[in-house]
Design the sequence.
């Protein structure tokens, strides 16, 4: 009997970890998307842009040392990770999904809702951090030399 309880606890812990990871990736995906759209819009500078002799002096906008294109790369990888975690999430909850489709009801928990709200506030605070960070203007030539 204790073995079943232990197995159930492990399953619940893994399920919770997958759900938290999916939520974190979702918030990061939204944050990096908003960052590249509004804080680092097109024209904020490209490291390998075309231009004449003065192109090396044109500034490139950075947030946390990353250009718009590097944030875009991060956005893509977070999206790929989110898709993988969501596939795992659906796999884990397949029996629940089938039960809901068949019209069977379940029971909820206020405790889960409270934890969700606390987690939401924490993750949103982390996602907002790049927007509250100062932008840095670095001449393209200097940034190319750094890298």
Sequence:
């Amino acid at each position: 009997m204790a073995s079943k309880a232990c197995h159930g606890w492990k399953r619940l812990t893994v399920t919770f970890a997958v759900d938290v990871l999916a939520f974190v990736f979702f918030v990061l995906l939204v944050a990096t998307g908003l960052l590249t759209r509004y804080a680092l819009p097109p024209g904020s500078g490209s490291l390998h842009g075309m231009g004449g002799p003065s192109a090396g002096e044109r500034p490139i906008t950075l947030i946390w040392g990353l250009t718009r294109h590097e944030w875009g790369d991060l956005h893509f990888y977070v999206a790929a990770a989110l898709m993988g975690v969501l596939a795992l999430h659906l796999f884990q909850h397949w029996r629940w999904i089938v039960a809901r489709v068949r019209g069977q009801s379940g029971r909820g928990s206020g405790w889960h809702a409270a934890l969700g709200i606390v987690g939401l506030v924490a993750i949103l605070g982390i996602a907002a951090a790049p927007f509250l960070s100062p932008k840095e203007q670095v001449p393209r030539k200097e940034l190319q030399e750094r890298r």
In short: The mean pLDDT is 80. The radius of gyration is 22 Å. The first strand starts at residue 59 and ends at 62. DSSP finds five helices and two strands in the chain.
